[in-house]
Amino acid sequence: ELRHRASPWQRNLGYPLAMLGLLALTGISVLIVCFHVLELLLDDAAMPRGIQDASLGQVSFSIFGSFGAALQVVLIFYLMLSSVVGFYSSPLFMRLLPKRQDTPLPKIIGNCVSLLVLSSALPVFSRTLGITRFDLLGDFGRFDWLGNFYIIFLYNMGFAALTTLCLVKRVTRAVQEELIRAFGEDR
């Protein structure tokens, strides 16, 4: 219904550009994670342990300089938004989604707790995936399990495989539907 009420510019330019942007961000994050998996296999320094004696501004956290740092920020915001969307679209937590002017206080408290847990896990999540090495001044690298190669390797491989699977499934399903609609076999 919203798609039909949208202007032609929004329908023909806005939605495709948004989809291409999401596709690009997902592809970039998968490529960074795959690169991190290769780093894990080749170098022990790629493990997401804490950086000792590295104060802010003295150590570059990106190999691409300012552009890389900006890309990391954009990817972290993308991961945050996709985590929230994925959380609220899961069948278990779909009932927690607030409704406009009709949300009881326990549901608001549940949403606050859920968003707090998601936002607290984001630095560890982005660091474990190799998207950033920045500690966010919380010493998140001091968790003991961040030194376990097998957990980090399987976590990265699982993220890359499942994200690629979702991406391929979503893109191929849309292409299949358009081909079926174009050939008129949907009737």
TrEMBL record:
GO function terms (MF aspect): transmembrane signaling receptor activity
Q: Which UniProt keywords apply?
A: Cell membrane, Endocytosis, Endoplasmic reticulum, Membrane, Receptor, Transmembrane, Transmembrane helix, Wnt signaling pathway
Under InterPro entries, the record lists: LIMR (IPR008075), LMBR1-like_membr_prot (IPR006876)
> How does the protein associate with the membrane?
Multi-pass membrane protein
Major place of residence: membrane
Q: Please give a single GO biological process term from the UniProt record.
A: Wnt signaling pathway
**Which compartment or compartments is the protein found in?**
Cell membrane; Endoplasmic reticulum membrane
**A GO CC annotation given for this chain:** plasma membrane
User: Is rRNA-binding included in the keywords of this UniProt record?
Assistant: no
User: So what family is this one in?
Assistant: Belongs to the LIMR family.
Q: Which PANTHER family match?
A: LIPOCALIN-1 INTERACTING MEMBRANE RECEPTOR LIMR, PROTEIN LMBR1L
Question: What's the protein here called?
Answer: LMBRL protein
From what organism does this protein derive?
Alectura lathami
* Encoding gene (name): Lmbr1l_0
